[in-house]
Design goal:
The structure is a single chain. This protein is of the alpha/beta class. It has 19 helices and 24 strands. The strands form four sheets. A 15-stranded mixed beta sheet has the order 1-2-3-4-5-6-7-8-9-10-11-12-13-14-16, with helices on one face. Helix 2 runs parallel beside helix 4 and helix 4 (90-98) packs parallel to helix 5. The longest helix is centred in the last third of the chain and has 25 residues, at 438-462. The chain is rod-shaped, with a radius of gyration of 55 Å. The chain starts with a helix and ends with a strand. The relative contact order is 0.04.
Length: 653
C-alpha cells in the first residue's frame, strides 16, 4: 500500500470513528479494532504531518454506569478518559491500553469510578507502566478483594505521575506493607494519594526518584518517614489535613530529605513544647505551611533556619519574643488569625518583605515597626479591632512616610474602639497635633498655667486680694468669738444712729462741724466715734466691727486724706461687708474734698465702685447751702433708738 493510500485510509477510519462516537454507538471492542487499524500505521517518530492534523474526536458525555460500553476519547493520540470500570470490563480496558505501547501518542489516562479486585488493579497498573502513558489519574477507586504481595515490574516505563483520589478498601484483613510497598517503590517523579484514609506509607526500599509527594486528607501520623533516608530527590511534600501532632518529629522526618524545598503541614494537630528536644529540619527547606494547627509562641524555637516563606495562619500565637528566632532568610511571614496584640519587631527577620497580621487582636500597632522592619514592602494588617487614638494616627502617618504598602487599604481598616468611632475608616479618623503631641500638650498646659498664675497674681496685687482675705478672716474670727462668748446676744441691738469713719487729718472738721451739728441739733442723735466709743482691751478690728454692727448707719468722710488711711480702708470694707451680708442701705458718703482719681490706690476698687454707683453728700463751700446739707444728713440717719431711761432717742415730749 502506497503512502498516499495509507493516509487516505486512516482519514476514512478516523471519520468513521468520529461518526460512531457522535451517535453513542462505539463499544470498547470496536474502539480497539478501529484504533489498531489507525495506530499500526502511525510512524513512531511522529513524522506524519497529515495524521497529526486530524480533528479531535468526542462523544456525548452521557455514559452507561451499568457496563463499560462507552469510551470518551478526548484526543486519540494524547488523552483518554474512561469511567465505570468493573471486574466485568477490566479485561477490555487492559486490551485497549495494550495498544498504547511505548512510543504511542497517548500520554494522559483518567479512570473514574473504578471498582475492581486486587489482581485486576495490579494488571491495569502493570499495563499502564509499560505503555506510553505518562500521567495516570484514578478518581474514586474501590478495592474489593484480598490484597496480597506482588512483585511489580517497574522497568521500562514512561510514567511520570500517578494521582489516586478517594480510595475505599473493603477488605479489612490484609498486610498493610503489601499495599504500601507497591506505591513506595514506584519509579516516578510525582505521587498523589488523597482523601483515602491512608494511615501509613513505607519508606522506599532504595533511593527514590520521587520529587513530589501529596498525601492530602488522610490519617497519617508522626510515624511517617521517620529515619527514612531514601527520599533523596524529594522537593515537595504535602501532608495537609492529616493527624500529625509533634512539630519536632515532623522536623526530624525532613532532616534526611536533602533537596526538600516545600512542606505543607496545614490543618493538622501540630504543637510544640519548648521542653522538647531540639528540632532538626532539612537545610534545603525554604517554604513551610504550618497554618491551622495548635501552635503557640514556642513555635519560633522550632523553625528551619533557611526558611523564606512561612505560613503560621490560624494558630494560637500571642507574641514573638525578641531573640527567640533568628530567621535571616525569611521574606514572607503569615501570622493572620492568631492572638497578636501588637506588630512584631524584625530583629530576627532582617530580610522580611511581606507580613500578614490581619484578624488578630491588635488595638494600636506600634509605630516602632517601621524602624525595626526597614525592608518590609507590604503589610497586611486589616480586620483588627483598632482603637482609634493618637498612637494609631502616628502609625498611619509613619506608614505613609515609610512607603510600605498597606494591603486592602482602606476598606479593611476600621475603628472598633472607642464606641462613638466604631465603623469609622482609619482614613477618616483625625486628631489635632495638640491632642496627640504629649510634649506640645504639656508645654501648652504649662504656659497656660503660668499665664493664669501671672494673671491671678497681678489681680491679687492690683486688687489687694490678700488684704481682703485677711480682713474677711478677721471679721469671721471676731464674729465667731463674739458668738462663743455671748451666745445669748445673737441678735445685735442698735445703739448709735451712725458710726463715723474719717481720717485723723480731717478730725477737726468732724469734731467742730459734724458732731456738734448732729448731736446738738434738733432731735436726739447718738454718734459712734472711735475716740470715745472703742472699748479698751479689744482689738481695733473688733472695735470697728462692733461699732459698725451697733450703728444704724455708717458715715464715711471722704477726702484725699481718707484714701491714704489704712484704718479708714478697714472701716469701709467692714461697712461694705455689712451692706451685702444684711442687704441694708447703711452707707452714707460725705465728700469733704474732691478726690483726684489718680491718688486712689488700686485696692480701693470698692470705694471707686461706691462713688460711681451711690449718691453721696458733698460738703458745700457756701455757707448758705450748709443748712440743707445738715437737714439731708439728719434725715438719712433718722431712727428711734432706746435710751437708758426707757425712752426712745428721737422722740419729742
Amino acid at each position: 500500500m502506497t503512502e498516499n493510500m495509507r493516509s487516505l485510509r486512516n482519514i476514512f477510519l478516523y471519520k468513521c470513528l468520529f461518526a460512531l462516537t457522535f451517535w453513542n454507538h462505539i463499544s470498547l471492542s470496536m474502539a480497539n479494532e478501529l484504533f489498531k487499524s489507525v495506530s499500526n500505521d502511525f510512524p513512531e517518530d511522529g513524522s506524519d504531518k497529515k495524521i497529526k492534523s486530524l480533528p479531535l474526536l468526542y462523544t456525548n458525555s452521557h455514559q452507561s454506569k451499568a457496563n463499560f460500553d462507552w469510551v470518551v476519547i478526548q484526543n486519540i493520540t494524547e488523552s483518554l478518559s474512561l469511567s465505570e470500570i468493573t471486574n466485568d470490563n477490566v479485561k477490555k480496558l487492559v486490551a485497549l491500553l495494550s495498544n498504547f505501547r511505548q512510543g504511542s501518542r497517548l500520554q494522559n489516562l483518567t479512570l473514574t469510578n473504578m471498582s475492581v479486585d486486587w489482581n485486576a488493579l495490579i494488571e491495569v497498573f502493570q499495563t499502564v507502566w509499560h505503555s506510553s502513558i505518562e500521567y495516570f489519574n484514578i478518581n474514586s477507586l474501590t478495592q474489593l478483594s484480598y490484597i496480597k504481595s506482588y512483585d511489580f515490574d517497574y522497568s521500562r516505563t514512561s510514567m511520570k505521575a500517578l494521582t489516586i483520589k478517594k480510595v475505599l478498601i473493603t477488605d479489612l484483613y490484609f498486610s498493610q506493607d503489601d499495599l504500601y510497598k507497591i506505591f513506595a517503590d514506584m519509579n516516578i517523579a510525582a505521587l498523589t494519594i488523597a482523601e483515602s484514609e491512608m494511615i501509613h506509607m513505607l519508606c522506599p526500599a532504595s533511593n527514590s526518584p520521587f520529587k513530589y509527594l501529596n498525601f492530602l486528607k488522610n490519617d497519617l501520623t508522626d510515624l511517617l518517614f521517620q529515619n527514612c533516608d531514601k527520599l533523596v530527590q524529594l522537593e515537595t511534600l504535602i501532608l495537609q489535613k492529616n493527624k500529625f501532632e509533634s512539630l519536632s518529629k515532623v522536623s526530624f522526618m525532613t532532616s534526611r530529605m536533602k533537596l526538600l524545598q516545600y512542606l505543607d503541614m496545614s490543618n493538622n494537630l501540630l504543637s510544640h513544647d519548648a521542653a522538647d528536644v531540639q528540632c532538626r529540619w532539612a537545610e534545603s527547606l525554604t517554604e513551610l505551611d504550618l497554618s491551622s494547627n495548635q501552635l503557640t509562641d514556642s513555635v519560633f524555637e522550632c523553625l528551619p533556619v533557611n526558611i523564606k516563606k512561612l505560613n503560621l495562619q490560624n494558630n494560637q500565637i500571642t507574641s514573638v519574643a525578641k531573640g527567640m528566632a533568628e530567621l535571616k532568610s525569611l521574606e514572607e511571614l503569615n501570622l493572620a488569625s492568631n492572638r497578636l496584640a501588637d506588630l512584631l519587631g524584625c530583629s530576627g527577620f532582617m530580610s522580611l518583605e511581606f507580613l500578614n497580621v490581619e484578624m488578630n487582636l491588635i488595638l494600636t500597632p506600634s509605630a516602632d515597626f517601621f524602624q525595626s522592619c526597614l525592608r518590609v514592602k507590604e503589610l497586611q494588617a486589616g480586620h483588627n479591632p483598632f482603637k482609634c487614638s493618637c498612637e494609631l494616627q502616628d502609625f498611619i502617618r509613619l506608614e505613609r512616610q515609610s512607603g510600605v504598602k498597606l494591603s486592602d487599604w482602606p476598606a479593611a481598616y476600621v475603628c472598633e474602639y472607642p464606641e462613638d468611632l466604631r465603623g469609622t475608616q482609619l482614613k477618616d479618623f483625625h486628631l489635632t497635633e495638640l491632642a496627640c503631641n504629649t510634649t506640645l500638650l504639656l508645654v501648652t498646659a504649662l504656659l497656660l498655667t503660668l499665664v493664669l498664675v501671672a494673671v491671678v497674681a497681678f489681680l491679687c496685687i492690683y486688687l489687694d486680694v490678700p488684704w481682703y482675705v485677711q480682713m474677711t478672716w478677721q471679721w469671721t474670727q471676731t464674729k465667731r468669738r463674739a458668738w462663743h462668748n455671748h451666745p445669748e446676744e445673737q441678735e445685735t441691738v442698735l445703739q448709735f444712729h451712725a458710726f463715723i469713719s474719717y481720717s485723723e487729718r480731717d478730725s477737726l472738721w468732724v469734731k467742730n462741724e459734724l458732731i456738734p451739728n448732729l448731736e446738738k441739733g434738733e432731735g436726739c442723735v447718738q454718734l459712734c466715734q472711735h475716740e470715745r466709743n472703742f472699748i479698751p482691751g479689744k482689738s481695733i478690728v473688733e472695735n470697728i466691727i462692733n461699732c459698725i454692727e451697733k450703728s444704724y448707719k455708717s458715715i464715711f468722710v471722704l477726702s484725699p486724706n481718707f484714701v491714704q488711711s489704712e484704718w479708714c480702708h478697714y472701716e469701709l470694707y467692714f461697712a461694705h461687708h455689712k451692706l451685702f451680708s444684711e442687704n441694708s442701705n447703711s452707707l452714707i458718703l460725705i465728700l469733704l474734698e474732691p478726690i483726684p482719681p489718680h491718688i486712689v490706690p488700686a485696692r480701693y476698687h470698692k470705694l471707686k465702685a461706691l462713688m460711681a454707683k451711690r449718691t453721696y453728700l458733698e460738703w458745700p463751700k457756701e455757707r448758705s447751702k450748709r443748712a440743707l446739707f445738715w437737714a439731708n444728713l439728719r434725715a438719712a440717719i433718722s431712727i428711734n433708738l432706746p435710751m437708758a431711761d426707757g425712752q426712745w432717742c428721737g422722740e419729742t415730749d
